[in-house]
Protein backbone atom coordinates (compact mmCIF):
# COMPACT_ATOMS: atom_id res chain seq x y z
CA UNK A 1 0.00 0.00 0.00
CA UNK A 2 1.31 3.44 -0.94
CA UNK A 3 1.23 6.27 1.60
CA UNK A 4 0.67 9.78 0.22
CA UNK A 5 0.93 12.80 2.51
CA UNK A 6 1.72 16.52 2.28
CA UNK A 7 5.26 17.73 2.96
CA UNK A 8 5.38 21.41 3.93
CA UNK A 9 8.40 23.70 3.62
CA UNK A 10 8.91 26.39 6.25
CA UNK A 11 11.76 28.87 6.46
CA UNK A 12 12.88 28.43 10.09
CA UNK A 13 9.79 28.03 12.27
CA UNK A 14 8.65 24.50 11.40
CA UNK A 15 9.00 23.22 14.97
CA UNK A 16 6.86 26.08 16.31
CA UNK A 17 4.24 25.30 13.63
CA UNK A 18 4.33 21.58 14.48
CA UNK A 19 3.70 22.29 18.16
CA UNK A 20 1.00 24.85 17.35
CA UNK A 21 -0.95 22.48 15.09
CA UNK A 22 -0.72 19.73 17.72
CA UNK A 23 -2.20 22.14 20.28
CA UNK A 24 -5.14 23.11 18.03
CA UNK A 25 -6.32 19.63 17.08
CA UNK A 26 -7.33 17.43 20.02
CA UNK A 27 -6.89 14.27 17.96
CA UNK A 28 -3.28 14.81 16.97
CA UNK A 29 0.20 13.62 17.78
CA UNK A 30 3.73 14.59 16.92
CA UNK A 31 5.08 11.37 15.43
CA UNK A 32 8.73 12.21 15.04
CA UNK A 33 11.27 15.01 15.02
CA UNK A 34 14.67 14.97 13.32
CA UNK A 35 17.40 17.27 14.56
CA UNK A 36 20.85 17.61 13.06
CA UNK A 37 23.67 20.04 12.58
CA UNK A 38 23.09 21.96 9.38
CA UNK A 39 25.32 24.92 8.48
CA UNK A 40 22.36 27.26 8.02
CA UNK A 41 20.73 26.35 11.36
CA UNK A 42 21.73 26.38 15.01
CA UNK A 43 23.57 23.27 16.24
CA UNK A 44 21.18 20.39 16.76
CA UNK A 45 18.40 22.34 15.07
CA UNK A 46 15.01 21.05 14.07
CA UNK A 47 15.04 19.91 10.45
CA UNK A 48 11.98 17.70 9.82
CA UNK A 49 8.99 16.63 11.88
CA UNK A 50 5.90 14.56 11.23
CA UNK A 51 2.52 15.15 12.78
CA UNK A 52 -0.84 13.44 12.58
CA UNK A 53 -3.82 15.79 12.59
CA UNK A 54 -6.97 13.70 12.88
CA UNK A 55 -6.42 11.18 10.06
CA UNK A 56 -3.90 13.23 8.04
CA UNK A 57 -0.17 12.72 8.34
CA UNK A 58 1.93 15.80 7.46
CA UNK A 59 5.69 16.27 7.31
CA UNK A 60 7.09 19.72 8.07
CA UNK A 61 10.61 20.90 7.29
CA UNK A 62 12.81 23.90 8.01
CA UNK A 63 14.10 24.45 4.51
CA UNK A 64 15.23 28.05 4.56
CA UNK A 65 13.96 30.99 2.52
CA UNK A 66 14.09 29.42 -0.96
CA UNK A 67 10.35 28.64 -1.05
CA UNK A 68 7.28 29.82 0.84
CA UNK A 69 3.78 28.57 1.41
CA UNK A 70 0.98 30.12 -0.65
CA UNK A 71 -2.74 29.75 -1.32
CA UNK A 72 -2.17 27.19 -4.08
CA UNK A 73 -2.13 24.62 -1.27
CA UNK A 74 -4.59 24.57 1.64
CA UNK A 75 -5.91 22.16 4.23
CA UNK A 76 -9.67 21.80 4.64
CA UNK A 77 -11.20 21.40 8.09
CA UNK A 78 -14.72 19.94 7.75
CA UNK A 79 -16.74 21.16 10.72
CA UNK A 80 -19.95 19.61 11.99
CA UNK A 81 -21.48 22.84 13.31
CA UNK A 82 -20.94 26.55 13.96
CA UNK A 83 -19.17 25.87 17.25
CA UNK A 84 -16.47 23.89 15.43
CA UNK A 85 -16.20 26.56 12.73
CA UNK A 86 -15.78 29.21 15.43
CA UNK A 87 -13.16 27.18 17.31
CA UNK A 88 -10.94 26.37 14.32
CA UNK A 89 -11.37 29.83 12.79
CA UNK A 90 -10.28 31.46 16.03
CA UNK A 91 -7.46 29.02 16.86
CA UNK A 92 -5.89 28.75 13.40
CA UNK A 93 -6.53 32.39 12.59
CA UNK A 94 -4.82 33.70 15.74
CA UNK A 95 -2.01 35.87 14.43
CA UNK A 96 -2.98 35.03 10.87
CA UNK A 97 -5.10 36.62 8.18
CA UNK A 98 -8.77 35.97 7.38
CA UNK A 99 -9.56 35.44 3.73
CA UNK A 100 -12.87 35.23 1.81
CA UNK A 101 -15.22 32.23 1.71
CA UNK A 102 -14.01 30.38 4.81
CA UNK A 103 -10.31 30.58 3.98
CA UNK A 104 -7.64 31.87 6.32
CA UNK A 105 -3.90 32.03 6.37
CA UNK A 106 -2.39 31.07 9.73
CA UNK A 107 0.55 32.86 11.39
CA UNK A 108 2.97 30.56 9.57
CA UNK A 109 1.54 31.25 6.11
CA UNK A 110 -0.33 27.96 5.70
CA UNK A 111 -3.79 28.34 4.15
CA UNK A 112 -6.80 26.60 5.68
CA UNK A 113 -10.43 26.27 4.63
CA UNK A 114 -12.72 26.13 7.67
CA UNK A 115 -15.91 24.74 6.15
CA UNK A 116 -19.12 23.46 7.77
CA UNK A 117 -20.29 20.20 6.21
CA UNK A 118 -23.68 21.87 5.69
CA UNK A 119 -22.12 24.16 3.08
CA UNK A 120 -21.32 21.25 0.78
CA UNK A 121 -24.81 19.82 1.24
CA UNK A 122 -26.55 23.12 0.46
CA UNK A 123 -24.30 23.95 -2.50
CA UNK A 124 -25.04 20.50 -3.92
CA UNK A 125 -28.82 20.91 -3.78
CA UNK A 126 -30.42 20.06 -7.13
CA UNK A 127 -32.48 23.27 -6.89
CA UNK A 128 -30.13 25.71 -8.67
CA UNK A 129 -31.89 28.76 -7.18
CA UNK A 130 -31.38 27.55 -3.60
CA UNK A 131 -27.78 26.50 -4.23
CA UNK A 132 -27.12 29.84 -5.95
CA UNK A 133 -28.43 31.81 -2.97
CA UNK A 134 -26.14 29.81 -0.67
CA UNK A 135 -23.16 30.43 -2.97
CA UNK A 136 -23.94 34.16 -3.06
CA UNK A 137 -24.22 34.28 0.75
CA UNK A 138 -20.90 32.47 1.12
CA UNK A 139 -19.14 34.81 -1.32
CA UNK A 140 -19.58 37.81 1.02
CA UNK A 141 -18.42 35.96 4.14
CA UNK A 142 -14.99 35.60 5.59
CA UNK A 143 -15.72 33.13 8.40
CA UNK A 144 -18.61 30.94 7.28
CA UNK A 145 -21.80 31.44 9.28
CA UNK A 146 -24.10 28.43 9.20
CA UNK A 147 -27.26 30.33 10.13
CA UNK A 148 -26.78 32.78 7.24
CA UNK A 149 -26.22 29.92 4.81
CA UNK A 150 -29.39 28.23 6.00
CA UNK A 151 -31.36 31.50 5.79
CA UNK A 152 -30.19 32.03 2.19
CA UNK A 153 -31.20 28.46 1.35
CA UNK A 154 -34.63 28.84 2.97
CA UNK A 155 -35.54 32.18 1.29
Q: Topology, pairings included?
A:
Blueprint (H helix, E strand, L loop, with lengths): L6 E4 L3 H11 L3 E9 L8 E9 L2 E7 L11 E6 L2 H12 L3 E2 L4 E3 L5 E6 H7 L4 H12 L6 H9 L1
Helix pairs in contact: 4-5
Query: What is the CATH architecture assignment of the largest domain?
Result: Roll
Termini Cα gap:
48 Å
Strand order of the largest sheet: 1-4-3-2
Uncertain ranges? none
The CATH homology group name of the largest domain: 2,3-Dihydroxybiphenyl 1,2-Dioxygenase, domain 1
Task: Give the total of domains.
Answer: 2
What is the β-strand count? 8
What report would you give on this structure?
The protein is an alpha/beta fold and 155 residues long. The protein has 2 domains: 1-67, 2,3-Dihydroxybiphenyl 1,2-Dioxygenase, domain 1; 69-155, 2,3-Dihydroxybiphenyl 1,2-Dioxygenase, domain 1 (Roll), CATH 3.10.180. The protein contains 5 helices and 8 strands, in the order βαββββαβββααα. It has helices at residues 14-24, 82-93, 117-123, 128-139, 146-154; strands at residues 7-10, 28-36, 45-53, 56-62, 74-79, 97-98, 103-105, 111-116. A 4-stranded mixed sheet has the order 1-4-3-2, with helices on one face. A 4-stranded mixed sheet has the order 5-8-7-6. Strand 6 (97-98) and strand 7 form a beta hairpin. Helix 4 (128-139) runs antiparallel to helix 5 (146-154). The radius of gyration is 18 Å and the shape is elongated. The protein starts with 6 loop residues before the first strand and ends with a helix. 21% of the residues are buried. The mean pLDDT is 94.
